[in-house]
Amino acid sequence: MGLVGLSGNTVTVEVDISDGLPHYNLLGLPDAALNESRDRVRAAFTNSGENWPNRKVTVSLSPAWLPKSGSSFDLAIALAILVAHGSLAQDSIDSTLILGELGLDGSIRGVNGVLPALIAGHREGIKRAIIPITNIGEGGLLQSMEIVAFATLRELLIYLRTGEGTSHTSEALDESTDPLLDFEDVAGQMRARFGAEVAAAGGHHLLLIGPPGAGKTMIASRIPTILPPLTIEQSLEVTALHSVAGTLSERSPMSRMAPIVAPHHSATRVAMVGGGAHVIRPGACSLAHHGVLFIDEAPECASGILDSLRQPLESGTITIARSIGNITYPSRFLLVLAANPCPCGKFAGRGLGCSCSSIQVRRYLGKLSGPLMDRIDMRITVEPVGRADISSLTLGESSAAIAERVKAARMIARERFVGRGFELNSEIPARALRTDFKPDRLAMNFLHDELDHERLTARGLHKVIRLGWTLADLAGRNQPTLKDVTDAYELREGGIS
Q1: First-to-last CA distance in the chain?
Q2: Residue 338 near residue 216, CB atoms below 8 Å
Q3: 272 vs 138, which has greater pLDDT?
Q4: Of the candidates 321, 318, 326, 334, the residue with the CA atom closest to the CA atom of residue 222
Q5: CA-CA distance, 441 to 482, in Å (whole number)?
Q6: 376 in Cβ contact with 199 (< 8 Å)
C-alpha cells in the first residue's frame, strides 16, 4: 500500500524470475530505503531456511508512476519472490494486503502507517491483511477486516503453507484518563479553571497569561481529562495520524482519551504544520486533531510559526504543498497558548521585582499577531497563587465533576444542531449566527455598540456570540442573554492590558 498523506493506493508486487546471470532489479520509482530491500530480503531468506533464487529476479511495484518509499514493502516482496520461485502457493496470498519490514534474522518488524493503509485497503474491497505483530494494536481497530499478525517470516510461511499458526488479537479500546492528571491538583485559579471548562464545553481557543509557576501548564495539561472520550471514528482518525507520523509510541492505539500535543516554542514550521521532502508527515497541529494543542511560552516562538496555524484554526484542515503534490491533513484542535506577562515574567500581581520597561512589555506581547489573537476566543489572566490557596487542605473540584458538566453542555449543543453538520458552539457558521442562533435583543445591542466603537471586529463579534452560547449551555439557558454575552466579552478581552 502506497500512502500519500492518509490516502492509500494499492501497490501490486509482481516478480519475474528468468534465466541469466544472478541479478536483482527493482522497478516502480523506489526510494533509497526501498532499494535496500534486496539485501534485507536475501538475508531474511537465508536465516529463515529458504533458498534465494540464483537467477535473474525482476520485481515490479505497480502502478509504476506512483513514488514508493519506506521499508513496508519488504514482506510483500519476499512472499512474491517465493510464489514466483514455486515455494509458495499463489492462492495463499491472493487478495491480501501485506505490510512489514524484514530484519536480517527473518523477523518481521513494525512499520508506520499501518492503520491508514488497512483502511484504504478495506475501501478497495480487500478482506485480509498480514501485518507485523508489533502493529497488532492499531490493526485490531479495524474490526471489519481479517488481520493476521506474525513476528517472524518462518512463522508466517508455516501459516501460509499449512494453515497452522498463532492468532493474535488486540485489546479493547481504553476509555480511562491519566490518573496522575486531575484538576483537583490545581490550587485556586478559579477563573482559569472556569476558562478551561468553557473551552472544553464549546471547543473555544484559550490564552493563559501569568507569571511562571502560576499553574498555566498544569491547567492546560489537564484539559484532556475533562473532554469527552473520542468516538470510534475519531479514535481511528487520531490513531491513523499518529501511525503515519510514527508517534504511536507516545500514544496507545487503544486510547479514547483526547490527545494533547505540546511542541517546544523553538519548534520549526515543518514540525508545527507538517511537511518533509519525500514523505510528507503530519505536524503537531494534525497530531492534536480532536484534542489539545498546547504551546507554552508562545511569544518566544519564531516569527510566523504561530501565524501558520491560522488556516487550521479556521478550516480544521492543513494543506501542505510540495513538488510531489498537495497533502491535506485534518487539524481540528483546541488551541491553548500560555505566555508570561513580560520577558522576565514578574509583571503580575503587585509587579514586585519586574525589571521590564513598558515598551518591553508591549513588544513582548505584541509578538502574538493581531490576526492570530482575533482567532483566540478567551484571554485569561492567571494570577500568582496566594498563601491561602497553597496551604489549603481542601482539594479543588475534580476532573470527573467538571467533565460531567462539559458532557451535559455538549449534549445540549448537539441536540440544538442536529442535522446541521456541526456539533460545537465554536463551529456555528457566521450565517447561522445572523439568523437562527442570535442572542436576545439587549445582547445584540451591546455587541453592535462595541462594533460601532471599533472595540470589536466582525470576527470578534461572532466569537463572542459563540462563546455566549457555551455559557448559556453551561447555565441551562435556551438563549444567550445580555449577561452571557457580557461575560463572554470579558473572557475574550481580559488578560491583556
Answers
A1: 54
A2: yes
A3: 272
A4: 334
A5: 8
A6: no
pTM of the model: 0.84
Crossing angle of the two packed helices 399-416 and 458-475, in degrees rounded to 10: 110
The angle, 0 to 180 degrees and rounded to 10, between the axes of the packed helices 74-85 and 153-162 is 50
- What count of other Cβ atoms lies within 10 Å of the Cβ of residue 164? 8
Instruction: Report, as an integer, the average pLDDT of 215-231.
Output: 92
Joined together, the cell numbers standing for residue 131 give: 501485518
For residue 310, CA distances in Å to 147, 304, 461 come to 40, 10, 18
Block residue for cell numbers 437562527: 436
Amino acid identity at 401: A
Nine cell digits for residue 61: 511495484
Residue ranges of domains in the chain, CATH in brackets: 2-162 (3.30.230.10), 183-395 (3.40.50.300), 402-493 (1.10.8)
Q: What is the pLDDT of residues 42-70, one digit of tens each?
A: 999 999 999 888 899 999 999 888 888 88
What's the gap between Cα 249 and its chain centre? 14
Q: What is the pLDDT of residues 157-192, one digit of tens each?
A: 999 998 876 556 555 555 555 667 889 888 888 899
Tell which phi-psi region holds residue 456, choosing left (phi > 0), alpha (psi between -120 and 50) or beta: beta
Cell reading at 294: 498546547
- Which residues, 6+ apart, have CB-to-CB distance to 289 below 8 Å? 237, 238, 241, 259, 329, 330, 331, 332, 333
